[in-house]
Amino acid sequence: RIEGQGLARPTGDGLGQNSMAQRPHRIIDQRPGRRLLYPQLTEAPVLPALAPPASGSIIPDIFVPTAKQRAILHARFDHGDIVKIEAVAGSGKKSVLRTLVHTYANRGRVLYLVFSKALQVTESQDMTGADMHGTVSVATLDSLAWQHTQECHGGRVVPVLELSAEDVRFEPPAFAKVVSKTIERFAQSVDECITTAHVPGRLPPRPNGLPYAPLYVAHVALEVWSRLRQARSVITPTYDVCMKLFQLYYTKKVGHYDMVVLDESQDCSPVRLKVFVDICGSCPKVLAYDQNQSIYPFAQGSLATIEGITSTHHFELTTT
User: What's residue 298's pLDDT?
Assistant: First the structure.
């Protein structure tokens, strides 16, 4: 609701350029349970010049986009496009992403990826109401990995990979730990196969006193990995192993979407970013990040990995 004194009626279709008496006014969110009050403005809001929505379509929350925000909202994204949005804190990134998601939800299905379960719950409440007609799915990359690798983990996942003597050709426990470490290092990489590059530098000695060969460690780790891939594996995987299994073998099982959006991508590990690029075929993909902010520093996020992703569009939101 736009509130003010003596405001003239807007002209035009309400979605492009419109005119309104230049008097102070304010925008109030009247949705049930919301008490958001936007600050008083000195100029009438100008909404992005999007095509008029179809009957029964989704109307995004009203906000006043800046010129840089409009550049994102007006851009046309085609199949094969990868869009980077570099945004500082307070630059209106969330409003832009929500408007972008709502706009594309009018045309097809959108997958909106967030980092944590808490954000998934919050964004699901804001974006997937009854008026969304099931066109927006909010998920985390971990929840997708959990869902699509269930045939491997069977609902059992552990934080640390534990291997028995039987799993590693009845070698000593110290050797089992080295194999476990090798698999974890592989799971945190974007490599396609386990090699000696994933074997730790310091190896325990054999019972005869001679050190284990890295090639032998890698070979045993590859045997363990093949068993982790099996349905209802007797070896319980870790969360990183599930993500790696998802990245290598299951991304094509994610359903069809017309756009994928990833928020807070600076906190994603290289494996998660690889999943983002691979899922849903060649539909447009948008990743938003802040190079000065890391909400989840434990997530092995890497700006170098983001910079290594070739993009077709690059936008910057640098002002608050």
Answer: 56
Half-sphere exposure of residue 151: CA atoms within 13 angstroms, side-chain side: 9
pLDDT of residue 30: 47
Where do the H-state alpha helices sit in the chain? 67-74, 93-105, 117-127, 141-148, 150-153, 173-187, 214-228, 239-245, 270-278, 303-308
Pairwise CA distance, residues 35 & 290, whole Å: 28
Per-residue pLDDT band for 288 (boundaries 50, 70, 90) equals very high
Which of helix, strand or coil describes residue 304?
helix
Percent of the chain with pLDDT over 90: 53
Contact by Cβ (8 Å): 12, 45? no
The DSSP secondary structure of 120-183, one letter per residue, reads HHHHHHHHSSGGGTT-EEEEEHHHHHHHHTHHHHTT--BSS----TGGGTT--HHHHHHHHHHH
pLDDT at position 55, please?
43
What are the tens digits of pLDDT across the range 63-119? 788 999 999 999 999 999 999 999 988 899 989 998 898 888 888 899 999 988 888
How remote is the C-alpha of 272 from its chain's centroid? Answer: 8
Determine the pLDDT at residue 44: 38
27: nearest Cα among 11, 12, 43: 43
User: What is the gyration radius of the CA atoms in the chain, in angstroms?
Assistant: 25
Residue 98 · residue 247 · CB < 8 Å:
no
Place of tokens 């000593």: 172
Between β-strands 25-27 and 2-4, what pairing exists: parallel, antiparallel or unpaired? antiparallel
Mean pLDDT of the chain: 81
Partnered with residue 205 across adjacent β-strands are 211
> 149 Cβ partners below 8 Å, 6+ apart?
237, 242, 245, 246, 250
